[in-house]
Amino acid sequence: MSRSRAPSRWAGLGLGMIAFAVLRWGLVQARPAGQPAPAGPPAASPPAPGMAAASDARLRLLDLFPSAGGPVSHGPAPRGLSGVGVEDCAPCHAEIAAEWASSAHARSWTDVIFQAEYKLTPEPFCRRCHAPLVQEPAGEDSASRVLAATLAGRGIDCAVCHVRGGRVLGVRGRGDSDHAAASDARLATSAFCGSCHQFNFPAPEPGRRPRYHPGRPLQNTLREWEQSRHSGKPCQACHMPQIAGERSSADRPRAHRDHAFRTFEDRAFMASAVIVKASARRRGDKVEVTVTVTPGAIGHAFPTGDMFREAVLTIRLGDQQHTELLRRDFALTITDDARGHLLGEVEDTRVPARAARPWRRRVVFAAPAGAAPQPTAVDWSLELHRLPLDDARERGLPESLVRVPVSSGTARLPGR
What we know:
Layout: E1 2-3, H1 18-25, H2 52-59, H3 86-89, H4 94-101, H5 112-118, H6 124-130, H7 142-153, H8 158-162, E2 163-164, E3 167-170, E4 181-183, H9 191-197, E5 198-200, E6 217-220, H10 221-227, H11 235-239, E7 242-243, E8 256-257, H12 267-271, E9 274-283, E10 286-295, E11 310-317, E12 320-326, E13 328-334, E14 341-348, E15 359-366, E16 377-385, H13 389-394, H14 399-402, E17 403-412
């Protein structure tokens, strides 16, 4: 298999979940031969241009979420409820509870890929978004450990988003006859998602030398959405579509937002994200293939999220194969004050949320020589890899867990 370019990764770094990748950088010291270490802590890089709107919106959410996403303090159980767990909400919201149970939010802590990475370096930074109910600092006694494990296992549950100060929050604030409720329109905004889906590389912990450029985007999904043609719609419009729901006791459909939080598991949803077009033609003893990928229903870059997540476009002609990687690449780059080098993004080959030109690649294959049968078509496939396959194998994870099919097709090849 051929690759379009050599990956500019540093040794020992795999995918990991977004927050965890930052922590691993503090442990990996990748430097080209002869490259000196930074001469003292370099100055932090300024935030990326255009981040002000997203940052201002998140500031207005600080009474709901800390700037780091967690830990979340939901307060006492609302009047009318004995607790704030999913089991306390399910009797009246069974359909929503079932949707949530199938979601990535329910698995934010127990996800196998996340846990494989987290075991390497269990740091608080990871827990703040993946286990936001765990309070800091957590006690070291056995009872505190059991409590922390229980809270972590709840992932991002009902209380994380919907309970504050003894009230159940909703966009409309309905249900006050059953429990204390309040209206909060912020739940329907993209900024509400931003604390865990839009953030910069943090400053290093006290006493630890920085390994990356602080202040530059680590996860940039909200900013990508602002630049997309779908910026007029919040995240919830696509990831939490309105559904009719089951019939209530009054025999009327109970409409609600889908709490399955559509992502990888919804294959039709994934297929609609981008539009792939491929064409092929003969040029003498060569076959030239052109593939374009443009945003479809997606409202951010493809792929987005985890900084090491990648899409893999494979083009095949007979037994020949070419692979293109759509991802962010990182390497050591000079600091703003020219005093050293830190890890920073050096290339982004993903499909942007909006661009003047489509993402396009042109590939040339050798046509079979002589009287050999001539191919009549070129096949292509697009996958999203939650973890690079080499890293998955190192962690003993099956490829089926990390490979997510997006789309595939065939480009007919005209005869001679």
